[in-house]
Structure formats: C-alpha cells, structure tokens
Design brief:
Helices cover 78% and strands 0% of the residues. The chain contains 11 helices and no strands. The two termini are 43 Å apart.
Length: 264
C-alpha cells in the first residue's frame, strides 16, 4: 500500500514539475500567433502577421546572422580543441593530467557571470576591443567542455584492441584513426557539436560581457523584453529560438542513444 501511494505521489510530483516548466513555454507559443499587439488573456484572435513583421525587421535579421556565425565558428573551435584535449587526457600519461581535465571542465562549472567577467577583464587588460571574435572566444570556452565530455566518455568505451589489431594488420596511426577510431567516436563528435551549437546560440550571460555594442539574438530578446518594446515580435523570435535550440538537442540525444554499448 505504501509503495502504491509513493508511486502515485511521485507521478503527481513529476507531472507538476513538467507542467511548471512547460506551461509558460506553451503560453509563449500561443502568444506568437496573437493578432493583437497587446498580450492579454484570453486571446481575441489569431494571426501570422507578426511572423512577417519579425522576418522583415533588420535588427532581428542582423542579430540572427550574428548568432548563427558565432555559434558555428565557436562549435568548430570546440570540436577541434575539445576532441584534441579528450584524446590527450585519455591516451597519454603526464604530470598534471587531472589538473588539465579539471581546467577544461571549469568554465561550464563556474557561474556564467564569473566566466563573463573574467573574459571581459582579460580582453580589457590586453587592450582587445569587444567584437565578433570576442563573442566567439567567450562561447568557445564553454562549448569545448561539451565536446570534451562527449568524446572522452566515448573513448573510455572504445576497446584499444581494435586499434592494436588495425596496426598489427599493417595500418599506420593515421589510417587507424581514420578508419577505426573516428567512425567509432563520430556520433559523440556530432552530438557534442550539436549540443555546443545549441548552447552557444542561446547564451546570454557570457555574451553580455563579450559582445560590446553588438546584439546576438538572445541579447536582442533580452533588451526588447526589458524595454517592453515589440513584444509580439519577441514572442515569434522566442518561438524560433526554442525550435532552433530544441532540434540540435533532440538530434544529439538520438545520436547518443543510437551509439549503443561498446565491446570491452
């Protein structure tokens, strides 16, 4: 009896948490189709007018382009550096190995405001003006962690015997990496890249300290909400951001699950 009551209570709590998280999102989705520029409930009518208005807004298009470019470049940097760090930590023994692993993970473990302030202080100290590239550097610092965690987790599950067998059969290190190791870790690389892009695309706190006068799409949303301007267009943009963030996360989840257990 107690077990049944506990199961019912736990189920009710899970449902409550999910409703608490997703009802505000559903409200935003509904408001994106509101025909009026006044957010009130119940909604008097529905329209697609704000989608066209948002798309033709030059500020939104510039912010979208900046977010996409920064996210793609930061993701590329994260894939290169994160996977290299994962291979170095997993394959080699050297002094300070654990410290290196800790330092790589630290940017995402710290509060975003601390990372942002630290990066801002670094750029100011060296006289580097805040620009597009400071945004990319700021995003790459925490995107590297995502790729690193995915790749090193997969490397720990990949049996070294497969690589040794490849080299015993005459393949050199590059051929072994290209034909054996890379296919086995490819899904973790893609999943890490997708998650890194999603994290970069909707980042606000670190971007605030590294963007200067530029606006990424999340910064534009934050500024418009704070000033109470163009709220119907904000709802449309938020809908787009959620969709663009949700899809990479969903794909990364599916890739991770499809990888299956590695033979030890």
């Amino acid at each position: 009896m107690e077990t049944k009551l506990a199961r019912i209570a736990l189920t009710a709590w899970v449902v409550f948490v999910l409703l608490f998280l997703f009802i505000p999102i559903l409200i935003i989705l509904v408001y994106a189709f509101n025909a009026s520029n006044i957010q009130s409930w119940p909604i008097a009518g529905y329209s697609l007018r704000w989608f066209g208005s948002a798309w033709t807004n030059p500020e939104i298009r510039m912010a979208l382009g900046l977010s996409l470019k920064a996210g793609l470049i930061a993701t590329a940097v994260a894939v290169l550096l994160g996977s290299a760090a994962a291979f170095a930590v997993h394959r080699f023994e050297f002094f300070g190995k654990e410290a290196v692993s800790f330092v790589v993970v630290l940017p995402i473990a710290l509060p975003g405001i601390i990372t942002g302030m630290a990066l801002n202080s670094f750029f100011v100290f060296w006289g580097l003006g805040l620009s597009f590239w400071t945004i990319v550097i700021g995003h790459a610092t925490f995107c590297i962690v995502i790729v690193y965690n995915n790749v090193i987790a997969r490397l720990r599950r990949v049996p070294r015997s497969l690589e040794e067998a490849s080299m015993d059969l005459g393949a050199n290190q590059w051929q072994t990496f290209r034909r054996v190791t890379l296919p086995m870790i490819s899904t973790s690389l893609v999943a890490g890249a997708l998650l890194a892009f999603a994290l970069s695309f909707d980042e606000v706190i670190v971007t605030t300290f590294t963007a200067g006068a530029q606006n990424t799409l999340p910064l534009w949303i934050f500024g418009a909400i704070r000033l109470g301007q163009k709220l119907p267009e904000v709802n449309v943009v938020v809908l787009f951001v959620m969709a663009l963030t949700f899809l990479p996360v969903l794909l990364a989840y599916r890739l991770t699950n499809q990888a299956g257990p590695m033979v030890k």
